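[job 4417] fold queue: 2 targets
>>> target A
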Amino acid sequence: MPRLSVPRRLLCVCVLATCVFSTVETVTCEDCLLETCTQTPKTCESTDGCFTNMQFWNKSGTAFAGFKEKGCLSGCVPLSFSATLGEQRTFEYKRQCCQADRCNQNFPVFQKSSVTNGVECPACYSEKESSCVPAPLKCTGPEKSCVEVTGTGTKDGETSLEFFGKGCATESACNLEDVTLMGSTQIRTSCSRAVDASPRQASTISSVLAGVFLLKLFI
């Protein structure tokens, strides 16, 4: 009889361990789309966390389109980027992720810089053609990469918008594939080498050219 007590104890330990490890905590998240939020927080699945997504599409410094979203998301990956295309069209995107109850209550704050950073990129924008004629654009803040972006918007299953643009962007905006903007627009991006347009760089280039010219005179 005493020999049977050991297996029984082991069985009890195994059952207890199974109960402990099978209990997975869930979180509640704010649930909003655009300006409409549910009355009570949403209880997420056991594998989900909370997310906040905020986007602004501006023209000449005036916001004319925005998108806000909160909710539950499995495998949430944070992403933040901004870009300035031709015709002073700017876009800002920020997705934040968290793993605590109602941790997504607040929307992120955008603080776009207007201070030039010495980088210059070709910039243009078109909603009719797959190309456009670029003009030099002085980049600002952390936008130190030259970006090329194509976008396709859909509505009711049909294409409603196609655009192409070039300009300045943060490095995090480079090489994006099928990122959804404004709820229904898919974009793809690629970046090229930026041109340093700072006075110091221009002065250095001028000095080199002057040196080459003088060298030719003495040869």
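>>> target B
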Amino acid sequence: MLPIDSSQPDWTLPDLAGLIDHALLTPTLTAADYDRGCDLAAAYQIASVCVSPHAVARVANRLAGTGVRVGTVIGFPHGLNTPAVKRVEAETALRDGAVELDMVANVSRVRSGDWAAVSADIAAVTKIARDLGAKTKVIFETGYLTNPQKIRLCELCGVAGADWAKTSTGFGPGGATDHDLNLLRQHAPPGVEVKASGGIKTLDRLLEVRALGVTRVGMSGTAAVLGEACDRLGLPRRWSEPTDAGGSY
């Protein structure tokens, strides 16, 4: 853990809000839950809201004009869909209003060392996104992988032109550890940023991963974390509900 000196913050509320992809991925969420998540995101002007594919159109409509981006997941949560299915998922999501795609690399293929298939899988989504002006994050699900497998995935992200290498879905084992974040930051090629996801539930932990060079963070506890940030800065909280109905990020 990195020591956090909160007496003189080197961050502002917009700095932290701009790191966050608010996760609304729990399968039991209702339409009202999605709406509340969007309103929270707009209140704090966070980077994006990441939702399940079926909710993209609704969320895009709710967030229109707010400046908050719409993201979704592809091949979630284990990446085991075929590349053809992932292409259709990506095309549909982009048509519905998503501008960021968090795709899961095929965990089975990665663990099998079938790198040609993994490369084609990643390329199937990143090319569509790039052609349509959208961004792609490749989810590794690091809790299942060895260090050499994670490093190879970093290299393939660079080859495919992905925008972020991402630790995990939040639904697998482990999460965004310092070890994995440092490993991804060290081995991700120039132009590939790092997204931390899994177990980031406090303001101090958000600040720790930010200090490691992370540029996006997936979380569901956004209201609590940014509420605490407001408290430390002596600002009024922008969201009154005590909890988020988001997901397990």
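[job 4417] complete. Note on B: The beta strands are 20-24, 48-51, 69-74, 100-104, 135-139, 164-166, 193-197, 216-219.
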